[in-house]
Design a protein that fits this description.
The structure is a single chain. The chain is mostly helical. The protein folds into 2 domains: 1-30, no CATH class; 31-91, no CATH class. Helices cover 53% and strands 4% of the residues. It has helices spanning 19-23, 33-53, 63-84; strands at 3-4, 15-16. The chain has a two-stranded antiparallel ribbon with strand order 1-2.
């Protein structure tokens, strides 16, 4: 489900994944502690993959290599978020 900002004659149509993103579009939303840790974990996996390839020039990646890099980043982020949210709720 996407939320659409109403179009006027002077604006382009914009889509947002959530109401939070819709109303926060004009300001930076700082990541919380879990999100920061998940980004770091994703970066480690991405770095390991790039090191495995022996390439650092992203423009030289094949389509398959690029897709695997993106998959490693997304997987690393999601897995770390899942790991961190398995702890007891704060209430």
């Amino acid at each position: 489900m996407f939320f659409q900002l109403k179009k006027t004659s002077s604006t382009k149509v914009e889509y947002f994944c959530s109401v939070k993103c819709l109303y926060g579009r004009d300001r930076v939303i700082d990541p919380n502690e879990d999100e920061t840790a998940a980004m770091q974990a994703a970066g480690v996996l991405a770095g390991e993959y790039v090191e495995h390839l022996g390439k650092t020039d992203l423009a030289a990646f094949t389509e398959a290599e690029w897709n695997t890099l993106i998959e490693s980043v997304i997987t690393g982020y999601i897995e770390e978020m899942q790991r961190r949210t398995q702890k007891d709720p704060p209430f």
